[in-house]
UniProtKB/TrEMBL annotation:
<feature type="domain" description="Phage tail lysozyme">
    <location>
        <begin position="254"/>
        <end position="405"/>
    </location>
</feature>
<feature type="transmembrane region" description="Helical">
    <location>
        <begin position="21"/>
        <end position="44"/>
    </location>
</feature>
<dbReference type="GO" id="GO:0008233">
    <property type="term" value="F:peptidase activity"/>
</dbReference>
<protein>
    <recommendedName>
        <fullName>Peptidase M15C domain-containing protein</fullName>
    </recommendedName>
</protein>
<feature type="domain" description="Peptidase M15C">
    <location>
        <begin position="495"/>
        <end position="568"/>
    </location>
</feature>
<keyword id="KW-1133">Transmembrane helix</keyword>
<dbReference type="InterPro" id="IPR041219">
    <property type="entry name" value="Phage_lysozyme2"/>
</dbReference>
<keyword id="KW-0812">Transmembrane</keyword>
<dbReference type="InterPro" id="IPR039561">
    <property type="entry name" value="Peptidase_M15C"/>
</dbReference>
<dbReference type="InterPro" id="IPR009045">
    <property type="entry name" value="Zn_M74/Hedgehog-like"/>
</dbReference>
<dbReference type="Pfam" id="PF18013">
    <property type="entry name" value="Phage_lysozyme2"/>
</dbReference>
<dbReference type="Pfam" id="PF13539">
    <property type="entry name" value="Peptidase_M15_4"/>
</dbReference>
<keyword id="KW-0472">Membrane</keyword>
Amino acid sequence: MNGFLQKTLRYILLTENGHKILKGLLIIIVGLMLLPTISFSPVAGFVNGVKNFFEGEGDLEDDTDISAFLGDEFSIIEMRYYKTVEAVRAKHVEEISEEQKSLAESVREEHKYTVIVTDDKGNEHEETRYPTVDTPLPNPPMVSVLAYFCTTEEIQIANGKNKINESKIKEFYQKIVKRPFRVIERSQDHYIVMVEYMTEQEITESLKSEGVFKDEGDVDLFETSIERIKELIDEAGGFKYDGEAVGQISNVEIAKQIWDYFKGLGWSDYATAGIIGNFEAECSLQPNLQEKGGTGIGLGQWSHGRRKAFLAWLESNGRNISDITAQLDYLIVENTWYGGKITLYKSGGLTHTSKAKSLSEFSTYQYSSVQEATEDFLWHWESPNYQKAQIGRRIGSANQVYNLFASGGSGNISSSSKKGKDPTLYFPAGNLPRNASMAEKHMQTISFRNSKGVMRTVKVNSSIATDLQTALQEISEAGYEIKQIGGYSFRQKVGSNGLSSHSYGLAIDINWDYGNPFIKKGKIQAGTRYLSHELSMTEGSIPVRILEAHGWIWGGHWTHSKDYMHFSITGD
């Protein structure tokens, strides 16, 4: 049977007639398995340079290459092609970060201001103050770049010796970085310089307009390549360089307990979020969890010699593993940190250099992003098997913790974010409607064009309609796509006897199916997983920033639950 499959594959992949058959099949069955009995899907769209491949110049040279796809030998992160792109990506990050920091200095200088201060002797004098300017670590895509060269060059991922021209990779990264860098103003004292990159869709449109993609078949193959490469990287335990950090906190109460513990010790928001994100991936925040088939135990899954020392400490100090504080106390006592440049276990020689030199320094180190802190703790405290590291889950969970508890890094939610306005202010004589027919009289439907030029409508309280319409248009003009929006709906609050602010037309929901869920007690009640889509809204993002400026309050600031899709005038 295996011989028959191999013979069939050789015909399809190495002959001109086979190429024609394959192209037709790929366009028809994008996203499906070609042969159910084998893991053939990785071949689709990126087995070698599609352009030359479909002109009749097959690149698979022998049975060894084909067999790699039939068995378990193929690992994309072991391919030279993958490593070449990865190395150039790292160099690009270094270069673009310097440019980002240079702009940050300019922003800091541009937005300095003077204040009059009084010294201890009662004398007044001017003092120059400079804002803090954050520079989150750039996160250029990996997957779409791999797919691009597979589609446009003679690239064969199955060939472990294959390598691509580094200058071409560098040029492509420069092509897809968005300029000018985005400068976000959070307050007079806080700015952010963001380096952003084209999305996969934007790259596709750019390549179509340039004529690189000749027809829809080329587009289909490029998009299929992206999906298959994502699967292969995930299966091989590689970093999710496509920017999809997809972790989700399993237990918000335990996360908050850990957060309060480390913040009580004076740890930074980034470091604390990074630890919790790592603990989530290690044990789903189950303090008593013991690894199946291994030696890991507890929040940090202490294993082997570290496990023995951990359990011995608990016993000698009369503490119990079910005591979360005891585990966190031990983490401080253990004081483990593998500093400097280390080779990641089972990574094929990849290395990581820690920013912090010790656990103590990690606790207050000025990381540029949650991701940077999460990765430092991952590789220099956890030090796991690279192929099973689940980096995307760790970063995603850490980001959620940061958004849940840090409120943009300050640790406190501003008063405007906590307290809304009385709904009676928006009805004549302060009489709130008691039923839908009464409420309908005070509603108005507004319309706007989203960032893609598509007309959207939403029904809201007529007293705030004009201002909201302006805000939604500003959001769209700034480039954020509102795919979904809902407003007035006469209904009860979830889990309460009171009426929802939607009943008064004073609340809207945006993009609930695009990574903006309602989360209660750590579980998603509505919507899709937080931070699972590029349209997920975070502190300082376009819609949050603009709607807050217009007096709306974001459900992402709530304390006991989180409603990332939700904005309201009333604060509930």
